[in-house]
Structures are given as structure tokens and as C-alpha cells.
């Protein structure tokens, strides 16, 4: 059987396929399984182990991991709580589950549908889980970190927060600062971390480096431990700055949990907030201020419109950073200021 292995399973090498437990075993997030492609929908390809685009065809066999997904512009889906005749690709990096809802724009194309062939098991017959396979997670501590930490937040999915974070990496690199990029939450697909790397990040990592097919529905402790682990990973380059991106919007479950956790927020030196339009900026800043968080600047998709920039500049008292300003070494002056607390 020729397998097309997804990137979330890149560490899975020595395994057997157990077909006997398909109906009796209840998978957990990160459990690895072999699937057969039954129908091609939105995902006509997956991300392979080297980050490559691996195209799918009917009858192909793939190795992927069960995971939950929250994506308001794409799919909502969950790890199944019972056996199903059909499973769905929820994310290109190899997250598979059962679809709960999809954005209206995807209704005609639908999901790529799979048949469960069997679970990948180790030498002891235990189902392999990417979250615990050849990786270890450190325990969260409240000890302040040496590099300055910049948090990139957005009003929603596709608000521009990844581009904000990546171009900020470019600006800091231009200012002769060593910078690391971390994507802390989301669904496995390494495009964002590759973009940040190409923009100038000296190290670019995300949750999937430690086997998480997604962070949706993770516990608070898991998120904090993952943060600690990824921050410890950055010590390999001793960065001056670490840019952390958190997926989706301010009211999304994991984002809201992290922003409400004083132990996490006390680690953060600055927050940059991104949105697609002026109203998103105003409402987002208000939500942050209500939580005692003052953004050092705003950016995002709205900065593609000079008119929206003018509108926002007339309504807020924080700097507006378009791509040119983010990528400029002069951005360093803004980040050297101490973080302000909202009154």
C-alpha cells in the first residue's frame, strides 16, 4: 500500500495498521489513522511531510490524524465520538474528523471524504498519537521570558494578523534584531510559519511542531504548556524578539482563554491588533481595553485602503501600521516603548 503521509504525521515511521479496532476504538485528537480517498471536495491536495503540495486522487491512501477544527471561513469539525462510514478532511495539513458546518461558499464543492482503513499502532499495539509521539511538552511557568514578546491578534479569521506578524519579522530583521515567529493556535498547515520565515524570521515554528493537529478545544493547561514549550524552542537562536500569532478572533474560545489568563498576558510586552475594516478595529480595541489590554498599534487588511486608513487614524489614538511601516527598521522604536495598561 502506497501511502501519502500528511505533515502532521511526519514523525511517524515505524508503525503497523490495525483494522480490527475500527469500530470499537474511540479516537482522540492526534490519533493517527490510514484513510482511503472516496470523494474529492475542497481539499484536492494535502500538505506532505516536506511541506509540499501532495495531490489526491480517488482511491489514494493517506496517513492523517484526527483533530478538531474551528475556521469560520472554512470548516467546523470534530473528532468523532463513534464509528462513521465516512470521515472528512478538515485541514490541509492532515486534520481529519466529522464535519459540523461549513462556510456557504464551500457548499457546492463540499469536503474531501474518506474511508477509515485502520489505525496506525506502535510495537505494543497502541494507537500512535502525534501529540505524544517522539515529542515532549514543557510545563508552563510564570517566569518572565528574556526576549520581548509581541502578540499578533485579529478580529477574525483572515483579518491580516499573519501578514502583520510576518512583516513585523521583516522590520525587526531589518533593524538587526534576531526574531522568532510562533503560531500558537490554529489548525495544522505550515504555510503561515513558512511565510514568516521568508519574511525574515530567524526561527519559525508552530503548535504542529509538537504534534498538535489543531489547538481547538485544548484545555487551558495544554495551551500554556504548549506556549512554554515553543518559547523554550526559541532559545536555540536566543532571539531579541518573539512574535506570537494567535489564530481567529478575540471571542474565539482559545484566544479568549489566553487573553483572560493573567499568567500568560503578563509575559507579553506588546499587542498589535489586525482587522479587515475600521469597525473591526474600533470594536476590537474596545474589547481589548475592557480586558485591560492596550494595543501598541493596529494593522491588517484595512491598511490596503488609504481611505480606511484615514478613517481609522481619525478614530483611534494608536499608530496605524501598513506593510511598509511594519517592514521598516523604524518599527523598532515603537516596540522599545513599555507596554501600557488600558485605563
* Structural class estimated from helices and strands: alpha/beta
Runs in which pLDDT lies below 50 for 5 or more consecutive residues are none
- How do the strands line up in the largest sheet? 14-13-15-12-16-17
Integer tally of domains: 2
Q: Give the second-level CATH assignment, the architecture of the largest domain.
A: 3-Layer(aba) Sandwich
- Which range best describes the helical content: under 10%, 10-25%, 25-40%, 40-55%, 55-70% or over 70%? 10-25%
Question: What gap, in angstroms, lies between the N and C termini?
Answer: 62 Å
> What is the N-to-C order of secondary-structure elements (H for helix, E for strand)?
EEEEEEEEEEEEHEHEHEHHEHEHHH
What portion of residues belong to β-strands? Answer: 15-25%
CATH topology heading of the largest domain? Rossmann fold
- The overall pLDDT, averaged over residues, is 96
CATH C-level class of the largest domain is: Alpha Beta
Number of strands: 17
Q: CATH-wise, what's the superfamily of the largest domain? A: P-loop containing nucleotide triphosphate hydrolases
What does the radius of gyration come to? Answer: 21 Å
Annotation field: number of helices:
9
Largest sheet: 6 strands, parallel
Outline type: globular
Amino acid at each position: 500500500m502506497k501511502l501519502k503521509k500528511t505533515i502532521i504525521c511526519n514523525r511517524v515511521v515505524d508503525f503497523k495498521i490495525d483494522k480490527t479496532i475500527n469500530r470499537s476504538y474511540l479516537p482522540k485528537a492526534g490519533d493517527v489513522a490510514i484513510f482511503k480517498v472516496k470523494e474529492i471536495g475542497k481539499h484536492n491536495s494535502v500538505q506532505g511531510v516536506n511541506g509540499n503540495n501532495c495531490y489526491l486522487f480517488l482511491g489514494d491512501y493517506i496517513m492523517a490524524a484526527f483533530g478538531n477544527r474551528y475556521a469560520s471561513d472554512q470548516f467546523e469539525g470534530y473528532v468523532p465520538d463513534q464509528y462513521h462510514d465516512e470521515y472528512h478532511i478538515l485541514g490541509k495539513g492532515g486534520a481529519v474528523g466529522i464535519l459540523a458546518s461549513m462556510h456557504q461558499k464551500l457548499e457546492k464543492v463540499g469536503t474531501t471524504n474518506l474511508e477509515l482503513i485502520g489505525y496506525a499502532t506502535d510495537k505494543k499495539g497502541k494507537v500512535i498519537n502525534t501529540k505524544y509521539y517522539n515529542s515532549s511538552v514543557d510545563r508552563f511557568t510564570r517566569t518572565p521570558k528574556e526576549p520581548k514578546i509581541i502578540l499578533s491578534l485579529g478580529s477574525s479569521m483572515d483579518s491580516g494578523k499573519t501578514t502583520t506578524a510576518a512583516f513585523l519579522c521583516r522590520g525587526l530583521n531589518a533593524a538587526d534584531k534576531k526574531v522568532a515567529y510562533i503560531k500558537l493556535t490554529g489548525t495544522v498547515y505550515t504555510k503561515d510559519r513558512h511565510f514568516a520565515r521568508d519574511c525574515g524570521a530567524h526561527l519559525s515554528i508552530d503548535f504542529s511542531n509538537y504534534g498538535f493537529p489543531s489547538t481547538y478545544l485544548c484545555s487551558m493547561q495544554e495551551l500554556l504548556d504548549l506556549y512554554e514549550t515553543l518559547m523554550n524552542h526559541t532559545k536555540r537562536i536566543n532571539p531579541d524578539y518573539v512574535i506570537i500569532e494567535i489564530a481567529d478572533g478575540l471571542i474565539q474560545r482559545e484566544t479568549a482563554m489566553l487573553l483572560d489568563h493573567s499568567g500568560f498576558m503578563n509575559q507579553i510586552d506588546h499587542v498589535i491588533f489586525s482587522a479587515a475594516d475600521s469597525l473591526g478595529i474600533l470594536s476590537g480595541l474596545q474589547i481589548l481595553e475592557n480586558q485591560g489590554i492596550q494595543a501598541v498599534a493596529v494593522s491588517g487588511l484595512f491598511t490596503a485602503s488609504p481611505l480606511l486608513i484615514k478613517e481609522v487614524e481619525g478614530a483611534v489614538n494608536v499608530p496605524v501600521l501598513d506593510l511598509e511601516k511594519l517592514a521598516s527598521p523604524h518599527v523598532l522604536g515603537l516596540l522599545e516603548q513599555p507596554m501600557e495598561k488600558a485605563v
